[in-house]
Inverse folding.
């Protein structure tokens, strides 16, 4: 066995044992250790990817000296190694982009615990990617759930406690259904190893035995993972979890956590049950219908939202619908398109969350649409980054989102019953995406003076920003009385300084130095003020362009990985 074949197992162990190490470190050291671990695992995964490509076939790594069913295995192919490397890149950039928010929004005594949760989350994602054992996958699904819940609630506000509770309830429901499905499958096949289950399922499908039990197991596992990945209508936990968490948590949750569950479902379809059996079960038809509904309803909810981060969160509901629609096409081209959209959405949605944070920084810490007017001028890099992410989500050529939608359309061509619904859903969803993303882009690039001139009616009232009467009081954003105090977004004393600012809807607190005002609406933010966030935004933009302009080699990797599933 080549030494590089040990790297997937070493990656899981490294991320697992770095968690306890981070619990005893403080300050910059814990941040450096976390970054070093993510970089090291990414490099190891790149070496594994190169090895598997050169070998031209997957390999199985047996842990210990005992074969199945007593021992445990991990299986490594092109797709597994590529996803592990890609996930490390996204996680590193998410952590870079949220350094300042972690320092200001998380208690100093709990910051090391945050890195413990991040390392455990990375460990669980790697295990879900590499494992060849179904019960081991369930164990790490639970580790993933607990870690993600910790990332949500560590901010310790009322909103995050409520969001974490909702997330835990829905996730436990999904985990329970997944476990029931695994139990059914074990009772029918007598195996937990994916390759052994696949062989037994093929025999049972050929003989027609235990057909109903197989369908029940498949349905339970599919619904369980659909709930955990927030497929409509199981998305109730998602807007609060993404909208109220600290920046790194929102970016990681939207980009990686739900994608880990989706990747596990793809492995169950292709490597555990067999896609021919899945297609005959008609489960894919159900996923197809709910995927299309999610594409439309998620976008509609985003249009109605008045808070920037919650709008991005609702957009994730629509994008997850795209992925399930592709799986529901029940073709290899549909699976390839769904996996590519996993990559596209991971790169773009984290870009949007980090860019939205930069726009909020330039708007007094607020995410309300009325407050981010002109923010693209006050934070130029964040404005450009949000524009790039928006164009990608809408499906503009050159960006990754366009390639995803193109592949979905191509996958649907020639399908007897699903081509027309797919094309119509893509068209409607694209129009809706353009409505809420371009509306936001226009807002952040509308000068504040022009906006006030349009909204003012000559009586001293400004709709959407606030109303002023003769007593000096203003409502909408905040109310002012004769003492110069204001509530709503923040309170002002006689010096005009802000002692407390609350993100409207997100509830984050900013210090007075973070709210240096420009014209009473925000402050100028320069690139070198937050170098880590600026570097993360630039890298996300480049990653999106790479996915959009170099799709052919990436698609070949995905197709080669799916072929290795057989």
């Amino acid at each position: 066995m080549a030494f590089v074949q040990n790297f997937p197992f070493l990656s899981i162990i490294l991320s697992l044992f770095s968690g306890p190490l981070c619990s005893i470190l403080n300050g910059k050291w814990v941040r450096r250790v976390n970054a070093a671990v993510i970089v090291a695992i990414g490099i190891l995964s790149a070496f594994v990817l190169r090895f598997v490509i050169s070998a031209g076939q997957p390999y199985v790594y047996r842990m210990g000296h005992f074969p199945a069913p007593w021992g445990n295995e991990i299986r490594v192919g092109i797709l597994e190694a590529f996803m592990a490397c890609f996930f490390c890149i996204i996680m590193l950039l998410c952590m870079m982009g949220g350094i300042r928010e972690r320092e200001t929004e998380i208690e100093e005594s709990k910051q090391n615990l945050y890195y413990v949760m991040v390392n455990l989350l990375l460990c669980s994602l790697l295990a879900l990617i590499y494992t060849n054992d179904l019960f081991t996958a369930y164990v790490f699904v639970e580790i993933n759930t607990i870690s993600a819940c910790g990332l949500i609630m560590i901010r310790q506000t009322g909103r995050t406690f409520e969001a974490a509770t909702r997330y835990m309830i829905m996730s436990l429901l999904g985990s329970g259904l997944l476990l029931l499905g695994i139990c059914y499958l074990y009772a029918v096949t007598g195996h937990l190893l994916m390759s052994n289950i696949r062989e037994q399922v093929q025999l049972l499908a050929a003989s027609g035995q235990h057909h109903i039990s197989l369908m029940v197991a498949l349905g339970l596992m599919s619904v369980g993972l659909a709930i955990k990945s927030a497929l409509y209508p199981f998305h109730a936990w998602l807007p609060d979890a993404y909208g109220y968490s600290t920046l790194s948590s929102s970016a990681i949750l939207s980009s990686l956590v739900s994608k880990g569950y989706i990747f596990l479902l793809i492995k169950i379809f292709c490597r555990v049950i067999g896609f021919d059996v899945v297609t005959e079960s008609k489960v894919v038809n159900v996923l197809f219908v709910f995927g299309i509904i999610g594409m439309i309803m998620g976008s509609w909810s985003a249009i109605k939202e008045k808070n920037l981060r919650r709008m991005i969160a609702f957009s994730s509901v629509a994008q997850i619908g795209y992925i399930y629609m592709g799986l529901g096409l029940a073709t290899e081209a549909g699976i390839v398109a769904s996996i590519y959209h996993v990559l596209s959405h991971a790169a773009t949605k984290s870009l949007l969350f980090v860019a939205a944070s930069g726009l909020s920084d330039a708007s007094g810490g607020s995410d309300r649409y009325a407050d981010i007017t002109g923010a693209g001028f006050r934070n130029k890099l964040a404005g450009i980054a949000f524009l790039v992410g928006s164009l990608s989500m809408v499906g503009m050529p050159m960006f990754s989102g366009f390639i995803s939608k193109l592949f979905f359309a191509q996958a649907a061509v020639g399908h007897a019953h699903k081509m027309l619904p797919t094309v119509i859903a893509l068209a409607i969803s694209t129009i809706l995406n353009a409505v809420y993303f371009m509306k936001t882009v226009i807002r952040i690039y509308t000068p504040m003076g022009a906006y006030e001139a349009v909204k003012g009616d000559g009586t001293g009232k400004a709709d959407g920003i606030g109303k002023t009467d003769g007593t000096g009081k203003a409502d909408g954003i905040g109310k002012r009385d004769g003492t110069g105090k204001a509530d709503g977004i923040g309170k002002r004393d006689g010096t005009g300084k802000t002692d407390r600012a609350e993100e409207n809807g997100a509830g984050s607190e900013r210090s007075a130095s973070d709210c240096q005002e420009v014209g009473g609406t925000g402050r100028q933010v320069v690139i070198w003020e937050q170098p880590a966030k600026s570097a993360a935004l630039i890298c996300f933009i480049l990653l999106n362009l790479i996915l959009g302009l170099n799709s052919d080699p990436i698609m070949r990797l995905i197709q080669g990985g799916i072929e290795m599933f057989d």
Q: What stands out?
A: Residues 400 and 548 are 4 Å apart (CA to CA). Residues 457-520 have pLDDT under 50 and may be disordered.
